[in-house]
User: Fold these one by one.
Assistant:
Number 1:
Amino acid sequence: MWYYAHTGKQYTKEVIAIPSVEKIIKKMKNQPRGIRLEEAEKVLAAYGYHFARQRGSHRYYINDKGDLIMLKEPLKISYIIELLERIGEN
């Protein structure tokens, strides 16, 4: 249970806070240059993708349907746009 410091009223974290994945997606849409690989991986994991393999700096993620997406650091805007299209958030 969480409490407001100044009033002492109770609130639940689920009601007040936006889930971090939604925050990252919003950040991807507004500021695609500032996304870290860890943030992109978190979004992919939330949408059912998991790490498949790595060849050099290219990291490949796959979902249960067989959809494969590649990310490479540093993340380019084109990678973020493709990621958003794949998860249906374009």
Number 2:
Amino acid sequence: MLSPEQREAFDRGVREFNEGYYFECHDTLEDLWSGLRGESRDFFQGLIQVSVGHYHLGNQNRAGACSMFERALRRFEKYPRRYFGFDLEAQRRALAALLQGLAENAPAAALAPSPPPQWHFDVDASAGP
């Protein structure tokens, strides 16, 4: 599914996300996404939107975070519970919880997941959908 160069960029984007570098993750994955075609394109765009949502959340931009998380959920709708070696169902639940907290105007500390969110992809399964 991904060329070796694309896989390297993807792995870098995941590392950036896991280290809390959400804006950098967005840049890295967007470069990868721009060259993708086919059924996985929306999945990768959803990941970018999750990253941007966390960036907004960290900057107290609740409206921006809400918009990105909602858009990511819509992108993820057509994919199964696990996709590309990723527990997409757990990601959907985490986004729904964040959106609920945002809707309830929860304090910023309550919205910041502790520990920070982490993405984990099963390397063998992520070779394809």
Number 3:
Amino acid sequence: MLHDHHEIREKMDRETVDVELALDDKSIVQLSLAAHEKKMTLNDFILRVLEDKIKESDYQFENGTKPQLLNETE
């Protein structure tokens, strides 16, 4: 399963698609202000948010829902 997951991610990294989002006015204003603060376009900001959430989701998929502390012993 993990092997397939990595193949899908590699394919996704090479391809882009258009996505239509239905957002209420309040969300658009909040996203627009956040994008403005970072001196980004709204589209670039939303793309970054989506990419960050996908990476976070990938981490959780591969490592479980909670980060774990790994202790090395002698």
Number 4:
Amino acid sequence: MSTWAPRLRHGLAAMAFGWWLISVEPAGAATINGTGAVLQGLDKVTARVSEIVTPLNRLVRFGTLEIVVRTCQKTPPEEPPESAAFLEIRDAKPDEETVSLFTGWMFASSPALSALEHPVYDIWLLDCVVAAEPE
């Protein structure tokens, strides 16, 4: 039996426990559910940076990418700032089969933590869109 397999399982279990530990909210803390997300996209070929504002569950395009934000949550103003969004990103090139590139959470404070890996495009989360409360 290989000696790296048990270490890999142990390392993955430790990582999963660490993620669970940092995701547990302290008593009284609540997240604010956004109505959309503000993303930023970089086209590496043209060096063009674009801000992408998208509502939840609506497909938006950036180059050949199709992006859907499923949920976006942010901390309240009295907490340290953090926004997190669950995204689905596919590459839909003409005359080719659509390929799923990314499905998961992105964090505004740590864009490299769970980044989209693509040779032409970079996408990262800037913030959640929160509807203004009526006065």
